[in-house]
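Supplementary Text 2. Reproducibility record for the structural model of the 357-residue chain.

All settings were left at their defaults, and a single model was retained for analysis rather than an ensemble. We include the record here because the model underlies the residue-level annotations in Supplementary Table 4.
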Amino acid sequence: MDLILTEEQRILFDTVSRLGADIAGFDPAARRARLAEFGLTALGLDADEPMIAEGVLVAEALGQARVNEAYVHTHLGAARALAGQPAAAALASEIAAGTAILAPALHEPGRRYDLTPALTTLQNGRLDGRKVAVMGGDVASHALVSARDDHEQLVLVVLPLAAPGVTRRPFATLDGRGGAELALDGATEGAVLASGPAAERLLADMVARIDAGLVADSVGAMSALMAMTAEYLRTRRQFGKSIGAFQALQHRFVDMKLAHELARSMAIASARALEMLEGPERDRVLASARLQAADSGRRIGEEAIQMHGAMGMTAEYPAGGFFKRLLVNAASFGDADHQLDRLIALARPGANRSAAA
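Retained model, structure tokens:
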């Protein structure tokens, strides 16, 4: 992904931005149908055309429109893990058509953001364990479950959520998106996607895509907050003039703009890292991007609400909704403290493995 978008990328972003504004209030099934109609559920499922930059741009556009869809987790993350996997071709086709959703089921109780080694077990074709914070799991048809097999190796299992032994407890996140907790008690019908080193690579790549997507989604939400705050400063009048004429607010808005541009720069860097880097080098860029997005998002969200005054505190005004989205993004797959810990670990001499887990 370059600093300057190609004409095709610009058209894609503008198209998804308009689509996002149209479908933001739709129910999940209707939203997914419209995303499929525009080909967004098929994006990147061809291993020969990963379309990383395009996937990140879609995430930014959906964040800017505040579409309550876990697209980053379910599509940019989990679904793309199926690309180039012949055994998963049928499910990939269903995902592309919008008739199936694959949610990443990687987090476990009491583990915070540590994804490996998995506590969930796969023995004799039966999955046993608990998964939490499964974003998109409330509406997903399948889950990509991390587990360990009889040989203590990591395995990634595609599990239909209607399979025997699966109990799903849906929840709503702070910002209105959805997820689920999964109880797996001898769950059957799962198909092993990868095991051992191959599973470790798939997991690291999946988390990397989710990291980059969350940064882009957050930049989109920040863009919306910046636009509505600029408009409010221009139109809200006090003491006979627009409040944007006051130098103190001008300086604070400039600080917001700087924070926004820092986050946008890191979003571009994270997309380029997905395309060009791997291993610790990629992880350093992504951890830095997540850290910057969390910092910029909190700063912009707090300032936007404060500048709007009491209006910004209401549930009806969209500023609060965008700020909540930024907070949820910042906590997903590693909060700011976790990203800082990743950077510290990667800075140590001899760091030679991905710190995504």
